[in-house]
Amino acid sequence: MAKQGDALRSWVKTKADQATRDVLQQRLTGTRVLSVTSGKGGVGKSSLVLNLSMALAERGQKIVILDADLGLANINIMLGNEPIYTLWDVVEQRVSLRDTLEEGPSGVRIIPGGSGITELARLDSAAISRIIKAFQELEGECDWLLIDTSAGISDNVLSFVLAADEALVVTNPEPTALADAYGLIKAVWEQDGQVALKLVMNRVQTRDQGTRLGSRLTDLALKALGQPVEFLGQVADDPQVARAILKQVPFYAAYPHSEATKDVRDLADRLLHRVPPPRRGGWGAFVRRLVENWPREINQDPI
Ligand SMILES: Nc1ncnc2c1ncn2[C@@H]1O[C@H](COP(=O)(O)OP(=O)(O)OP(=O)(O)O)[C@@H](O)[C@H]1O
Ligand SMILES: [Mg+2]
């Protein structure tokens, strides 16, 4: 019996050591930049970003969310916050990037993009360098940068997807959402994107439905385009999600035992423990790729 106890203790210790090593390794290799995107609007990106960030934070990860929706500041609305500063104030040199950070749940911090996102198109090379430097200064403080993008395959959205290390393509089981998710994957493939694509099937009625539709879409991308897309997993269609949104609290906190919370935990575990995608240089490199490929309104000097 004593021997069994020792074996169990040693197993627990090995597991704990491994988890600590994973976190330390993550810190050494820089921030993992993950954009969350979709072909069709309203499929659950912002809700996934917010709740997934909490699941990752619970696993010892330091998270910053960039609310990069070109329309409304989705994440802050979900939390019932009114941002004081946005990325635009950083571009205009009124405040530092650190001043824009809003405290979210579980220690997650949020950068409200606001009009700063669209204005990236107007920056001259000096302003671009300032933004890159500002992002680099925060780099050592975070393991993940999660980006909540707008829907669709506009050049602006694609720029975020292509600049990241990896992108979660979110869809739901509706045929129109699946078709638009495929359109987005195709648009990335057409650009010869180096980003690692992962698929999340949101609002599934059954596990079977999620797996079936997920595999069908990833198989099609591979066969028709030769584009690998990993099926990361699914989130149940859960009435608690809408309830939490109405209360302006994340479902992860309001309904910790809900199906959706369980599924988001599984997604976080898979993101952390499956083979990580190739890192492409952390925040600084991400911002540089982003602004270099950002659709220009006027011609700027190359950096
Ligand atoms: N797993 C789920 N179960 C039930 N309802 C959900 C789920 N995920 C999202 N929803 C519903 O879908 C709505 C839209 O979600 P969300 O705002 O996250 O989508 P979005 O993709 O960010 O939209 P947009 O393209 O407008 O930014 C939510 O208000 C919520 O009611
Ligand atoms: Mg949104």
Q: What's a concise summary of this model?
A:
This protein is 53% helix and 16% strand. It is of the alpha/beta class.
Task: Give a structural overview.
The chain has 303 residues and is an alpha/beta fold. The chain has a single domain, classed as P-loop containing nucleotide triphosphate hydrolases (Rossmann fold, 3-Layer(aba) Sandwich). It has helices spanning 2-28, 45-58, 74-79, 87-91, 97-100, 115-119, 125-139, 155-163, 175-190, 207-225, 239-247, 251-254, 259-273, 282-293, and strands at 32-38, 63-67, 102-103, 109-112, 144-151, 166-171, 196-204, 229-236. The chain has an 8-stranded mixed β-sheet with strand order 3-4-2-5-1-6-7-8, sandwiched between helices. Helix 10 (207-225) links the parallel strand 7 (196-204) and strand 8 (229-236). The longest helix is centred in the N-terminal third of the chain and has 27 residues, at 2-28. The protein starts with a helix and ends in a 10-residue tail after the last helix. 45% of the residues are buried. The model is unreliable at 23-28 and 298-303 (pLDDT under 50). The structure holds adenosine-5'-triphosphate and magnesium ion. Residues 38, 41-47, 69, 74, 151, 202-203, 235, 237-238, 241-242, 245, 260 line the site of adenosine-5'-triphosphate. Residues 45-46, 69, 74, 148 line the site of magnesium ion.
